[in-house]
Amino acid sequence: MSITETALRAGYDTPSGFAKAFRKEFGTNASEYRKNLLKEDDSMNPKIIRKESFSAVGYCIIPPEDLVVKENCAYWKKIDFSKYPDYPEELEDCGEIAAWIPPDEKSGELSYFFGFETVCECVPEGFSAISIPAAEYAVFEVSVSVFDESLSEELKKLWNKIFDEWLPSSEKSFDEGKMCFEFYKGEKAFIYIPIK
Predict the structure, then answer these.
(1) Under a CB-based contact definition with an 8 Å cutoff, are residues 170 and 121 in contact?
(2) How many CB atoms lie within 10 A of CB 72?
(3) How far apart are the first and last CA of the chain?
């Protein structure tokens, strides 16, 4: 929440009254206090990298219309992949990508993509391809390494912390023209947030 919203929810009539009480109690202002908390949380110390454009091949899935994206990170856990073709055997493991694709301009349909990063230009039958443009990213590592319910819960917590805590207190801002995605490589999972 913003400091103003926090002040009002805590019962203060004005943000300045909250600020005065906060400084008296904690010896610093609320913004600095939040920044210091984030510094102590390793999951909130992303690596800032530049990633060139890349392609991915995988499954493009249309979710139910009433689905709330924010509550459905790691949406792959709800998909029955037995309905889809197996990955090609000759696949070089460059890592798997999971991303919500913005609504289609014509149909207005939101779609979910789950597949693998690839340099191959061919798209096997039953698969779709997406291209992710070059961008600067804040890359957050997820602390759980098992693809089960605990991973999806940790992803959900981390997504919320990124947008509710890290972005509001960071000098970086979210680049809405680019795509966020989850990336899985071996036993590691990451969240890529495009920044400017």
Answers:
(1) no
(2) 16
(3) 22
Q: Could you give the C-alpha distances from 163 to 37, 39, 94, 166, 189, in angstroms and in order? A: 15, 16, 27, 6, 18
Q: pLDDT per residue over 18-41, tens digit each?
A: 888 888 887 888 877 776 665 555
Dihedral of alpha carbons 113, 189, 90, 83, sign: negative
Residue with tokens 């009254």: 17
Instruction: Name the pTM for this structure.
Output: 0.73
Q: For CA atoms 30, 70, 130, 141, give the dihedral sign.
A: positive
Give the side-chain half-sphere CA count within 13 A for 196.
Answer: 7
176/179 Cα distance (integer angstroms): 7
Listed in order, strand segments (DSSP E) in 21-81 are 47-51, 54-61
- Residue 1: CB partners within 8 Å, gap ≥ 6? 9, 164
